[in-house]
Design goal:
Elements (H helix, E strand, L loop, with lengths): L1 E4 L10 E19 L4 E20 L12 E5 L2 E5 L7 E6 L6 H19 L2 E7 L3 H14 L1 E2 L2 E2 L7 E3 L4 H5 L14 E6 L5 E7 L7 H17 L13 E2 L6 H8 L6 E5 L2 E4 L3 H9 L2
Helix pairs in contact: 4-6
The protein binds benzoic acid.
Length: 288
């Protein structure tokens, strides 16, 4: 098996070409007189042995903890150089299947309406689809001029929408899933931190619109985890108790169970929580 990388050498996991190679045989059937039946039967003779290779594209994707793959792109707000232009900000880079489609339209209207809320949490939004720039512009104008969804209308999308007709960026980020569609990006969400590291990835299929409250919760929870060195339990929201990092030694486990760590409540040595007031979380997240 030969593996050859051809994209983005600086990044560890990108699209690779994998060649599956193996011997293949060519046969020739020669006539042969069979003395038992006094008739001609066929005999296959191996003529040659070839070495055949079948090339298969393997699409790999950046993972949580990786550096976000860099790219330059044309967007509805001008050219961007990612992630350099976004140094110091959290970013949600998200893809959608196509312009002028209903689920995407409802998503863009919702995200545009919530943009200020994300910006206050130091988080910028960047959209992408494999359509061209003029299609993007026409679609965003139509949304503003004609579309009403829930209580939203006259919605102006002011965050950049990348044109990616060549699928260059979509491929770098593993947004094309051929089982779902080979010409459209799925609904991918990459949450990228101010150092350009990928911190969360969420994928949805074409038919399922995203939950933007959840995306905001993810951004806030990641920032709270960083600021207070804690983890956030199931369905956590600011104001809920947080998880104290698991004891890393028998001594700490014993102290915790003996109630020696102030403010820390333990169900068992590995499951300890503490209070983290909502105002403290919001101060940390919204201080920018
Ligand atoms: C939509 O956004 O409505 C959509 C896009 C692609 C496939 C299915 C639905």
């Amino acid at each position: 098996m030969i593996v050859s990388r051809y994209a983005d050498q600086e990044h560890q996991k990108t699209v690779s070409n994998i060649m599956f190679c193996g011997p293949s045989l060519d046969y020739l059937t020669l006539p042969l007189l069979n003395p038992l039946c006094n008739c001609i039967t066929g005999l296959q003779v191996v003529l040659t042995t070839k070495y055949d290779c079948m090339e298969q594209e393997v699409i790999s994707m950046p993972r949580i903890g990786d550096k976000a793959p860099a790219f330059k792109a044309i967007t509805t707000q001008g050219e961007i150089n990612f992630p350099a232009d976004y140094n110091g900000s959290w970013v949600i880079l998200f893809s959608h299947p196509a312009d002028f489609t209903p689920v995407c339209t409802s998503e863009f209207m919702t995200f545009a309406t919530l943009e200020k809320q994300f910006n206050k949490a130091n988080c910028k939004l960047i959209g992408l689809s494999v359509d061209g720039l003029y299609s993007h512009i026409a679609w965003l104008r139509t949304i503003k001029d004609k579309i009403k969804y829930r209580d939203m209308k006259n919605v102006e999308v002011t965050f950049p929408l990348i044109e990616d007709i060549t699928m260059t960026v979509a491929r770098k980020y593993g947004m094309i899933m051929p089982g779902e569609s080979s010409t459209k990006a799925v609904r991918a969400v990459f949450v990228i931190d101010p150092h350009g590291m990928i911190r969360a990835i969420i994928y949805y299929p074409l038919s399922l619109g995203r939950n933007f409250d959840e995306l905001y919760r993810v951004v806030v929870a990641l920032q709270a985890a960083d600021a207070f060195k804690v983890a956030t339990p199931a369905d956590w929201r600011p104001g809920d108790d947080v998880i104290v990092p698991t004891a890393g030694s028998c001594g700490v486990a014993k102290d915790r169970m003996a109630g020696k760590e102030e403010g820390v409540e333990c169900e068992d040595w590995f499951f300890c929580t503490k209070k983290l007031p909502k105002e403290k979380v919001l101060d940390a997240v919204l201080e920018h």
